Each structure stands twice: as C-alpha cells, then as structure tokens.
Amino acid sequence: MKAQRNRSQQRIIKLLYEVNKPLSAQEIYMELRQRNQALGLATVYRALDSLKLEGAVQARTLPTGESLYESIERDQHYLTCLNCGASVPIKECPVHQLEEQLETSHKFQVFYHSLEFFGLCAKCQAFTNGS
C-alpha cells in the first residue's frame, strides 16, 4: 500500500523518473530550482528519507560517501572504481529470483535491492600496473 505523498515527494519522484539517471540530493535540489519548483535542501533530504522508507526511491552510496538516488523502476546496478570513482551501469540483474525466494522464505516485503561491485576499472588497473 502506497503512503500518501506530499507535494515535495511527488516532485522528486517525477524528477527522478524524468531524468532517468541517479542524482544526489544537491543535484535534485538544483534541478528543481531550474524547473521553478524550488524546495529547500532540508526538505529535499526529508522527502528522500520518507521515499526511501516507502520503497519509492533507492539510494546507493559512492566510495566518497555521497548518496545517489534513483527511481526503483530503473533497477540499475553498477561496477564502481574505487580509484577514480567511475560507475559503469551493468544491464544484467542476477538477483530477481533470489529476491522472490527471500520474500517467500522470510515473509519479508522487498521494496528494492541494490547490487554494486567495487574494484578497479581498466584505466586505473593500467595506471597502477605501470602500463
């Protein structure tokens, strides 16, 4: 059952759906300002927290500590380089079946899942190997 969303939450959901890429809270704040739908930064953070608890948005934390938010409808996963911070989206999602099994076996309602692999990209590998 979806919770009643306030106007701030609705604006953020609509924005994340339209831009179709992960955004930080600051980027959401700036993008809404550019669209003449300004919200305070604290309001953006509160709305994002509520939307995460509802399962309407997913957040992933970069190695820098910054969180990026995106619509759960995207179901996007990443390879993230620990050296340069580049994130490469991967198309495959090998955990859908596991998610369904966990929901059944643990009677746990899963809103979304996050799958991210951390390591070194080819460019950073070449640099660290001296090539």
From TrEMBL:
| Cofactor or coenzyme needed | Zn(2+); Mn(2+); Fe(2+)
Q: Where does Zn(2+) bind?
A: C81, C84, C121, C124
InterPro entries given in the database record: FUR (IPR002481), Fur_C (IPR043135), WH-like_DNA-bd_sf (IPR036388), WH_DNA-bd_sf (IPR036390)
Query: Which keywords accompany this UniProt record?
Result: DNA-binding, Iron, Metal-binding, Repressor, Transcription, Transcription regulation, Zinc
Residues annotated as binding Fe cation are: H113
Q: Which SUPFAM superfamilies match?
A: Winged helix' DNA-binding domain
CDD domains, sorted: Fur_like
Asked whether the keyword Repressor is assigned, the reply is: yes
How, per the record, is the cofactor bound? Binds 1 zinc ion per subunit.
What protein name does the entry list? Transcriptional repressor
Species of origin reads Euhalothece natronophila Z-M001
Lineage of this protein's species?
Bacteria, Bacillati, Cyanobacteriota, Cyanophyceae, Oscillatoriophycideae
